[in-house]
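Ticket 4471: requesting a sanity check on a complex prediction with adenosine-5'-diphosphate. Repro inputs:
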Amino acid sequence: MSEIGFEGVSHDFGAERVVDDVSLVLRERRIGIVGANGSGKSTLARMINGLVTPSTGRVLVDGLDVRRQGREVRRRVGFVFTNADNQIVMPTVREDVAFTLRRHRLEPADATARVDAALERAGLTDLADRPAHRLSGGQKQLLAIASVLVAEPAVVVADEPTTLLDARNARRIAEHFETLDQQLIVVSHQLDLLESFDRVVVMEAGRVVADDVPRAALDAYRALIG
Amino acid sequence: MIGVFHPGSSFLHRAPALLKLGVLAVLVATIALAGSPWWLGAASVLVIALFAVARVPFALAWRQVVPILWVLAFAVPLQVLFNGWEAAAVMAARLVLAVALAALYTLTTPVTATLDAMQALLRPFRRWIDADRVGLALALAIRCVPLLTELVREVLDARKARGAEGSVLALAVPVIVRSLRTAEHLGEALVARGFDD
Ligand SMILES: Nc1ncnc2c1ncn2[C@@H]1O[C@H](COP(=O)(O)OP(=O)(O)O)[C@@H](O)[C@H]1O
Ligand SMILES: [Mg+2]
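Returned C-alpha cells:
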C-alpha cells in the first residue's frame, strides 16, 4: 500500500477556512471519507493528487510532496469524479480508455492489450465502439473508472462516485470497487458502501472529528448528523 | 454529427488517416474550383459510390447532410435572386459535396487515428508546435459538440418548465455559466489523467 500523509494541512478559499489543520497518515487498503455537504471532503480528496494545493502544511504520497512532484504523484494516484461526463474526453468508449495512455508512449500492441484488459475488467468490452456520451450513467462511471485504471495507478481516489447514480448502478460501482487491487480512498454519502472498509474518516467544518474502524466512525457520524 | 465513427472494415476504414486527409483536401479543392454542372454531377456519383463502399447506412448518411440543407434553405433563394439558378445550383452542390466528404472521413476514421495522423504531419515542426497539444485541442473540440448539444437541450427544457420560453437571457446565462463550469471540470479531469503540462 502507498502511504498518504497530511501534515498540518489547512486550506482557505478566500476568507473561508475549508480544511482546518488536518494531520493524517493513510496506509489502509480501503479508506472512506464522510461528512456533511461543505465539510471539506472534496477539497481534502483533491489535495491527494494536486488538484488543490493546500494553503498551509503539506501532503505526501510515498514521501513525494504533491506540491513539488505533482507529475509523479498523479502517475501513482488516479482520480474518479462525481460526474463521469466531465471526465470523458473521446467520442467512443475504447478511444476514451486509450486516450489515457497517449502520454505513456507505449508500443501500440501493448497499449491495445492494456485497453482491452481495462474494458474487460469494467465489463465494457461489448460497448467498446459505442459513443461514450450515449452510455447510461452507470456505464459512464464504469468507463471513467476504466480510463483511470488503465494507467495502473497504485491509489484510486473517488469523490462521490455514486452520488448521481440510481441504487442499482451505485451497487454495481461499489461491487466493481471491491474487486480492485488498488488502494482506494472513497468520499461517499452511501454509508453501507463503507461498512466493509478498513477505516473511515469523518469530516465536520474542515476538521477530522472521528477516525476509526467503520462501525465506530459511522456511529459517530450518525450521532453528529442527528 | 461530427465525431461519430461508424465502425466497419471497408477499404475506406482501413486506409491510413493521413492518406484520407490528403485525398479529402484534394477532392474538396477540386469541387470548390470545378464550375461546370457536369463535373459536379460526376463528383456526386463518386461521393455516393464512396458512401456505398464504406457501407454507411442511408439514414446515417442523410443525417450528415441535413444540417447543411437548412443553411441552403436560406442561402439558395438569395443566390437565385442575385446570381440566377445556375450559380445557386453550383453553390448548393459544392457545399453538400464538401460536407458529405468530410462526414465520410469522420464516419470511417476513429478520432484516435486522426490524432496520430496529425502528430505525424506536425513532426517536422515539433520545434515550434506541440503536436500532442494540437491533438488534445482537436479531441476536446470534438468532445464539446455532444456536450454542448446536450447542455442546450437541458437548458431549453428548464426554460420551458419555468415558462420563460421567449427569454434570450434564460437561455444564454445558463448555457454560458454551465459551459464555463464544464470547461473547468474537463480541465481538472485532464490534469488528473496526467495531461498537466
Ligand atoms: N473552488 C472553490 N472556490 C471557492 N469555494 C469553494 C471552492 N470549492 C469548494 N469551496 C467551498 O469550500 C467548502 C468545502 O467544499 P468541499 O470541499 O467541496 O466540501 P464537500 O465535498 O464536503 O461538500 C464549501 O463551503 C464550498 O463552498
Ligand atoms: Mg464534495
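Notes from triage: Chain A has a mean pLDDT of 93. Leaving this open until the requester confirms.
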